[in-house]
User: Fold Growth hormone-regulated TBC protein 1 from Clupea harengus.
Amino acid sequence: MDIMFRTIVSTATRTAAAAKTHHKGLPASETPKTVQPPTKSPPRNHLFVRVDPYGFERPQDFDYESHEEMMSEYLAVLRRRSVKWSKLLHGNVKVEKNIKVKRYVRKGVPKEHRAQIWMAASGAQEQLEKHPGYYHSLLKNKHNAKLEETIRLDMHRTFPDNVLFRSSSESCLQTALYNVLLAYGHHNNDVGYCQGMNFIAGYLIIITKDEEKSFWLMDALLGRILPDYYTAAMMGLKTDQEVLGELLKVKVPAVWHLMQQHNVMWSLVVSRWFICLFIDVLPVETVLRIWDCLFYEGSKILFRVALTLIRHHQALLLQAQNLPDVCERFKQITHGEFVEDCHTFMQKIFLEPGSLSMASVRKLRQTCRDRIVAEEAALRP
Assistant:
């Protein structure tokens, strides 16, 4: 499979045209915009080509010079990290939970070790070993026709700017994506399938290059790390949006007051951050670094990322004059050099928000959930 990945990406780099900033999956209500001819081409001797290492096409206005400068430093960091990770793992499948490993994860997991670390840290590897053959049995069982149809509708909307997911490409990953989503829909009847899950499964498949591992990582994310995010009521998602508001009230009060002043609901500006786990919001490498910590430390990492984005850009946000202006500025803060430099960004998320314990997050979640339940009950006839 790894050879196939390299072949597809290599072929695509010679022919693909760049799409748009980051990689944007299209909601059902949108249609693709006309892509103009590229205005900027990479130098002939450039280290970075039109398709990134994960199969995503680079945008037309991609700054190859700045990216090469940043990546040359980052790749040197990764080479050093790779040596340390290899010594730490010693070929072991299991990953301990301790201060040293936590520090290693925060400093970045090299690409070649990422699937193993995610599987071990999340408990997905343990579940796979406890239930051999379970994933394949789900695919062999009789399928729910409505579930199949719903998943199929989203296939062409999943990463249209990624060469690995195009139906015209050799060994297209859409089949693997469909299988993982279908199996998970039958595995977790309370969730089934909803939009957003396709992007998460897609990222997992890109990294693991393995359907069964991707399935068990989905189970870890949706079942244990982020419970109730994707159920019909989406109570987990609603709760965490309110938790972010409570954290901002203390840590970035000026922005919290701005939101109150313009009567902006948190769901308007951050729901996509949480439901897609920053896919389609932040650059690919930055998202993967966030996920390294998400699988190892748990969901509080999402709050650290959100708090850092908001706190770092509060001067820009505070210039907003009305509700649409607030929403537009929240989009702006997810672009630019600050988020492109994933290594520096990850250092910032553990510094700028200050202390944030899982115990405090759990307490806030309970308070916010109780409030939401009471408010929704009051609205019922």
Residues 70 and 341 are 7 Å apart (CA to CA). Residues 235-379 form a domain with the Cyclin A; domain 1 fold (CATH 1.10.472.80). Confidence is low (pLDDT under 50) at residues 1-39.
